[in-house]
Specification:
123 residues, elongated, 46% helix, mainly alpha, 5 helices
Length: 123
């Protein structure tokens, strides 16, 4: 008895395998510092690592997807921004703008090149 296997789906993982996060980190967003300092120019840059740690605690404490506004507020409090403007929060929670130039690695390109033959069952 010959068993025929069919591909039923393909999972493309961007969790640091196919692509790396823009700016070298997933959270907070790559332009967090730029956005905050545009709204609050006197923000002490040496506080950003502690702010990121506070944000991480909010994410880690949530059993589900954390509330993004509370996540940002926790970081902003550490930075001395106790009452962030609605505009600042909107900017932090908006999708990141601009193109991302992140070419896939060589093994990914090889895998993608082989995908049509895997799906069609030809070599």
């Amino acid at each position: 008895m010959t068993e025929t296997r069919r591909v039923r789906g393909v999972l493309f993982d961007s969790g640091g395998v196919l692509l790396r996060p823009v700016g070298g980190r997933w959270n907070p967003r790559y332009d967090f510092e730029e956005i905050v300092t545009a709204h609050h120019p006197g923000t002490p840059v040496e506080l950003f690592p502690a702010a990121f740690a506070a944000g991480r605690r909010v994410l880690d404490a949530s059993a589900t997807t954390a509330n993004r506004t509370e996540y940002h507020r926790a970081m902003l409090r550490v930075l001395g921004v106790d009452e962030p403007s609605a505009e600042l929060l909107r900017e932090l929670e908006a999708p990141a703008a601009g193109e991302v130039s992140a070419p896939p690695s060589v093994p990914v390109i090889r895998s993608l090149d082989e995908l049509p033959s895997i799906v069609s069952g030809t070599s």
